[in-house]
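task queued by scheduler; priority normal; single chain, no ligands, no partner chains; default sampling; output format set to structure tokens
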Amino acid sequence: MLCISGAWGGLEMNIYRLARYLTERGHAVTVIASPGSPLQRYAEKAGLPVELLTVKVKYVDLGAASRLSALLKKKNISSLVFSVAKDTYLAGWARWFFYPALRLFYYQQMQVGIPKKGPVQTLLYRSLAAWIAPLHWLADQVREMTHMPPERIRVVLQGIDVPVFVHARAQREEARRHFRLPPGAFVVGIVGRIDPMKGQEYVIRAVARAVKAGKPFHALVVGQALPEYLGHLQKLMAELAVAPFVHIHPYTDDPSLAYAAMDAFALASVQETYGMVTVEAMAAGLAVVGTSSGGTPELLGNGQYGVLVPPRDDAALASALLRLMEAPAEREGLARAAQAYAASTFTIDAQCAALENLLGSAPEAASGPSR
């Protein structure tokens, strides 16, 4: 599995988790990472085989492509899975120039966004054995925005370790103490990188609306913060006089503890491709209010398993959360339905089985160099 990224966000975490899951199922998986990257550290800590590769030129590092090919041949690896879009160039050039028998699988994590129909992009995409989309709306986007052969576009939902989250709420009292939350408060949580696109500001503004209406709820905000945006949020909390109601905590390796402390979950992202935290919250038995953009509507069954509100609309967000706070029967019914759906749909076993089938039966018609 290839990921030449020095960051540690959803993309990198998903590659790491997938490598671990497939290894646990008996597959020989090697992680190819950048030297000193968080992925290298986490993979080595988990006992996964790790190979290091340095890329110096973003799109046309043929030296790195040659080294990648030599590494794969030496380890007798014929299938390569990657998720970061820019790694398409590294993997594609490795196959095109140095290793024609290599089968490439791009497991999409971000939306395409703009048309990618240029000759180089088309050449590289048609070298893929399969383009794997985690949601149907993303697969539709690939068909519209690229010249990728439709028969090689597949949908494989991303899974989570369901039991870890299903039993999370049993830790409720411990979790409340850990995050220093008032024991009897109604707590709305948001988990994820603290940056403007994730919408923590709108949750804080929703808290302010609730406080003004005399029906306050508390917000638990958990994630790795961009310093400038964190400063903006702290200033906003002071201006709105809601600091006592907003509890900001750093990223945790055990997000189940955060979900255990919550009564409801808010996915306030401006545009979320595939909110793993949404699936985790559903599995944890929480009612979810999510924005009606990106992949969130599909994850929530277009409103069947959660409440959808417009992005950047703190009034609608506050209204939905207050309704859930004041209607415990409705909230618990929604939470039970969401949990049952997540537990039956977004499992690691289902994801890995689909990938195993795909890697074992991918079309051999991917275009490549004729030599």
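post-processing summary
- The mean pLDDT is 94.
- The chain has two domains: 2-158+349-361, 162-346.
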